[in-house]
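FIELD: query
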Amino acid sequence: MENLNLSKHKTFYAIGLSYKKADAEVRGQFSLDSKAKRNVLLQAKQEGLDSLIVTSTCNRTEIYGYAAHPFQLIKLICQNSAGTVEEFQKVGFVYKNHEAISHLFRVGTGLDSQILGDFEIIGQIKTSFAESRSLGLINAFLDRLINSVIQASKKIKNETEISSGATSVSFASVQYIIKNVTDIGDKNILLFGAGKIGRNTCENLVKHTKNDHITLINRTKNKAELLAGKLNLIVKDYGDLHQALQKADVLIVATGAQNPTIDKNILNLKKPLLILDLSIPKNVNSNVEQIPGVTLVHLDYLSQMTDDTLERRKQHIPAAEAIIEDVKLEFITWMNGRKYAPTIHALKAKLNEMAASELLLQKKKSSNFDEEQAEIISKKIIQKITNQFASHLKDENSNVDDSIEWIEKVFQIGLQTPKKTPSIIEDKYKINLS
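FIELD: result
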């Protein structure tokens, strides 16, 4: 019989941490760059885990996948980042089975985002999904689940206005700059690094400030030139950073480095400087605030900026949640079907065996027994019985695991089915990793 959970491991988990309980500094400790994410996948494969995806953004680091125990997944994050198990216990979460499925739906549809309705995360989930699949780490369950989340995300984007209006961290950055820097169109703006939020902020700056002397510096110059070509920016060499810093009125840092790239020792300022650090981990050392005239604003502060757009978006949460429930129900129905199909097939075989035995007995007893007619009638009755059981198992109010166990016990179906699996349990998994 196919494993009820579509994996050799019993439980589907969502584990990780996000902006809800972990501040930027802690999230930085647990962040995984592209190399670290791949190492997590390779290590998982080596350790026998057969289906998982890994996401790591400025707001969250999470793993969705099958394991015998959540610590197997927590360990993968901690061993490939600067985070510790002790710190994870303070700020991390562990969801399992249905609660894990619900969490993934909310994350992928922007309902769990720091900025409500931010759909960037679904693109990152798609990328993570593709990478796991390339390594053979996607089973039928996770394949169907991720595609269901993508479907829900698309429907919410098309059928509600939860993502309407220009609200994102990058737009909030531009709003902050415009409100706090006078004559921004004439000021010297320096973008250091070409991280995604930094690029988006730069695009918004060009669009909303009409500033035509924004300078871009990146360690990899050809990457900077590629971005500059699209936005008509000035590109300078990394070696010109110190000189460009002295001329800047606004500095946007999006380097994506694991350690600070800007601190007070490299700033020799003769005028005020507004610094926006749009990186996780933080790429600007807080000691820059010791310099008179320097204002440092971090991503977390910008993420908390709310406006009328966000308030309007909240009105569309019920519609988005209704779409999620519809798509999720389709997925659960499919998942339960995968679980109970072997039992229904076995039940039908058992009933056919019982019918054949009874037909043989009646044939011996009666000389004028109509075997052909009796066989037709018995097959119809068996089909009706199995349809009735299948209908019960499809009912969303049925406890599939208990019902399967009961059917197999009553009809003495020789299936090696574990006692009630945790697939339908919706409690949060309480961990003790000490």
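FIELD: remark
The chain has three domains: 11-165+312-334, 169-306, 341-424.
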